[in-house]
């Protein structure tokens, strides 16, 4: 016999992508026998233990996310890479769903999920967004802690700030509440670089390994340059020398992007700005040679530079 769906149940299913827990169904007045009948007749299907999809057909991603967080219990929140997916910081993943529960809760293994525990979940959980998830800042910091390397951790900072989902100041404030965080001092230093305009791993490598390590004067990051009616931005601009240093993280640009780069370089040249370009290999494999080249250009354009060696094997004069 078809189930009489109340307005409250209909609203709940609409909000939760067609998924509800047994506890929710009973709290809305359904009898246990009515719930079991829906399952026997296959009008409903079990997605997780005690969590059902009130439809036929394969549950989609949203339904599976809801099923996981409902299975985890009250106060749980999607987190780590799954929360990053919801915020648009990361792309869709075929991997397990990440969910965080209060530290005191003992949760049995959840099919297709990785369960994390947190003592601070009450404040880390976003107050309104659905399905429940950790706040952007907490999500990003969780990902930095599970990253395989500091470069990967820095990339998460760049992604979240670059997409304007948060700010270095907010991330710094959240990091202050994690005194035992891995790479804590490095993350604070990296956030300062992000604040100054280093919006990619390559840009930070340039600041750290080329510019700062060799005593080059600091450039202005993401510098706004107006040419005629157009506004363009330079990755690094040494204003006194009118020298722009562009960093290309891709091995090769498509033809249309190369044409756009050429037009920008030509426009800069028209107002006296020389543009040089370096790629990932230049900055990461031969930072000393890049520093020497830039120092020579700065000096040729009347900017005093006192170049220093970055270490015992550095080849710069």
Descriptive keywords:
3-stranded antiparallel β-sheet, 3 domains, 14 helices, elongated, 10 strands, Endonuclease, Chain A, 17% strand
Please sum up the structure shown.
By secondary structure, the chain is an alpha+beta fold.
List the helices and strands and how they pair.
Blueprint: H1 7-15, E1 19-21, H2 22-27, H3 32-40, E2 45-48, E3 51-53, H4 61-72, E4 77-78, H5 80-87, E5 97-102, E6 113-118, H6 121-124, H7 136-146, H8 150-162, H9 168-176, H10 184-195, H11 201-212, E7 220-227, E8 230-238, E9 243-248, H12 255-270, E10 274-279, H13 280-285, H14 287-300
Parallel strand pairs: 5-6, 9-10
Antiparallel strand pairs: 1-3, 2-3, 4-5, 7-8, 8-9
Helix pairs in contact: 5-7, 7-8, 7-9, 8-10, 9-10, 11-14
Question: What does this protein structure show overall?
Answer:
There is one protein chain. This protein is 44% helix and 17% strand. A 4-stranded mixed sheet has the order 7-8-9-10, with helices on both faces. The termini are far apart. The protein has helices spanning 7-15, 22-27, 32-40, 61-72, 80-87, 121-124, 136-146, 150-162, 168-176, 184-195, 201-212, 255-270, 280-285, 287-300, and strands spanning 19-21, 45-48, 51-53, 77-78, 97-102, 113-118, 220-227, 230-238, 243-248, 274-279. It is of the alpha+beta class and 317 residues long. It contains 14 helices and 10 strands. It folds into 3 domains: 7-65, no CATH class; 72-195, no CATH class; 214-300, Endonuclease, Chain A (3-Layer(aba) Sandwich), CATH 3.40.960.
Structural class: alpha+beta
Order of helices and strands: HEHHEEHEHEEHHHHHHEEEHEHH
- How many alpha or pi helices? 14
Strand content: 15-25%
Global outline: elongated
Query: What composes the largest sheet?
Result: 4 strands, mixed
The average pLDDT value, as a whole number, equals: 91
Question: What is the total domain count?
Answer: 3
Give the helix proportion (percent range): 40-55%
Low-confidence stretches: none
Assembly state: single chain
Widest sheet: strand ordering: 7-8-9-10
Number of strands: 10
Rg, Å, rounded: 26 Å
Spatial separation of the terminal alpha carbons: 86 Å
């Amino acid at each position: 016999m078809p189930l009489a769906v109340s307005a409250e149940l209909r609203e709940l299913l609409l909000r939760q992508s067609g998924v509800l827990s047994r506890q929710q169904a009973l709290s809305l007045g359904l009898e246990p026998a009515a719930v079991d009948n829906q399952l026997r007749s296959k009008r409903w299907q079990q997605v997780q233990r005690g969590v059902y999809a009130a439809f036929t057909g394969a549950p989609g991603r949203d339904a599976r996310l809801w099923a996981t967080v409902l299975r985890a219990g009250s106060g749980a929140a999607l987190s780590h890479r799954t929360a990053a997916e919801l915020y648009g910081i990361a792309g869709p993943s075929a991997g397990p769903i990440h969910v965080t529960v209060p530290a005191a809760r003992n949760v049995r293994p959840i099919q297709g999920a990785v369960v994390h525990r947190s003592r601070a979940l009450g404040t880390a959980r976003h107050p309104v967004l659905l399905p429940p998830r950790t706040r952007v800042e907490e999500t990003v910091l969780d990902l930095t802690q599970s990253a395989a390397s500091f470069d990967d951790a820095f990339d998460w900072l760049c992604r979240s700030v670059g997409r304007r989902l948060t700010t270095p100041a907010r991330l710094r404030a959240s990091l202050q509440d994690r005194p035992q965080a891995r790479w804590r001092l490095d993350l604070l230093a990296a956030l300062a670089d992000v604040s100054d305009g280093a919006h990619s791993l390559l840009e930070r490598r340039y600041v750290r390994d080329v510019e700062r390590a060799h005593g080059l004067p600091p450039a202005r990051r993401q510098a706004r340059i107006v040419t005629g009616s157009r506004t363009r931005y330079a990755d690094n601009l040494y204003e006194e020398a009118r020298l722009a240093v562009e960093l290309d993280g891709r091995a090769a640009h498509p033809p249309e992007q190369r044409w756009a780069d050429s037009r920008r370089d030509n426009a800069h040249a028209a107002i006296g700005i020389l543009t040089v370009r370096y790629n990932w290999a230049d900055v990461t494999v031969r930072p000393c040679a890049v520093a020497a080249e830039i120092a020579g250009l700065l000096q040729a354009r009347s900017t005093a530079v006192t170049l220093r060696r970055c270490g015992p094997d550095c080849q710069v004069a």
